[in-house]
Amino acid sequence: MDSIKxxxxxxxxxxxxxxxxxxxxxxxxxxxxxxxxELLIFTGINQEFELNVNSRYFLDFIAQVENNEFEILLNxxxxxxxxxxxxxxxxxxxxxx
Length: 97
Hints:
The protein has helices at residues 2-8, 55-64, and strands spanning 13-18, 22-27, 36-40, 49-54, 71-73, 81-84, 89-92. By secondary structure, it is of the alpha+beta class. The protein has one domain (2-92): DNA Polymerase III, Chain A, domain 2. It is globular. It starts with a helix and ends in a 5-residue tail after the last strand. Its EC number is 2.7.7.7.
């Protein structure tokens, strides 16, 4: 995902905000530098949901999948979540900020 790669030039730690019709990626940098990008995609999520993660784990997963279609299985922003495609699955622990 190019959106995540752009943010990692500023910070490895990112905030991902899921909205009904988009996903927003923000840097979580202690410096006064900020990066933000938005991916327009229908998520079907009715209420805003935020995750803080180390982008490396997301990028490692994306490097393993054959196409850009995968599932994100979420419960709460402070609990581990699952990234899954037809051949690969990974569990990621969010960062507590």
